[in-house]
Here is the input.
Amino acid sequence: MHIRVILPVIGESLLDSVRREAEAWAAPGTTIDCVSLERGTASIESEYDEALSAPGILQRIDEARADGVDGVFITCFGDPGVHAAREIIDAPVVGGFEPATLTALSLGEKVGIVTVLPNVLPMLNSLARRYTIERRIGTIRVVDLPVLGLEDHDVLLNRLFEQASDAVGKGEADVIILGCTGMLGVAEELKKRLADKGFDVPVVDPTGAAITWLESCVRLGLTPSRTTYMPPPAKDRAV
Here is the structure.
């Protein structure tokens, strides 16, 4: 099984860490490769960033289709370009939000998301409405760190724990989701810290949810429905 991970930002400095994280979740026999964009933004933290990244993402989807990959993970919690991508490739495509939230909803009644900045809250609320799950999202909170400022795991974990423990303690969440795919390698430690405080709740890592979701779809032989994701009509396009 071959899964292509698309890092929907410019630059190559994060590729190795993103690939290692995806490989850590993948089953034996799954091959992971990872590519970034030739044009776009350094991170996605707004609708503007997401719009600028879309052409580069779809370019990488065209390449993935030509390479015959079995599944594609666009590694961003905002699911940029996911629905457009499903129209042009006969392989399952996910971002971070959809597989993480659907996994979380199978584990508890109310979901709490802890994400990066206030800028992304409208984007996540919009996704919740699109997927018709807004009634089961008890809270969306922020650690007030930019995507490119998540490399200090001590600071990140402290802020995640502060927000997650408060959400669970106030009855706003039964499951915690890491609301950015850049929050690498912290899910288990956060779960342990919550358990030490007396909160026995799952913590869903969006990368883990996405990779295992794709593997399940591939093994089940599932691809995007063509009554939902219809191929775009033929016409001239300048991109």
Observations:
- The chain has two domains: 2-95+208-220, 97-206.
- The domain at 2-95+208-220 is CATH 3.40.50.12500 (Rossmann fold).
- The mean pLDDT is 97.
- The helical segments are 15-25, 47-67, 82-86, 97-105, 121-130, 153-169, 187-196, 206-220.
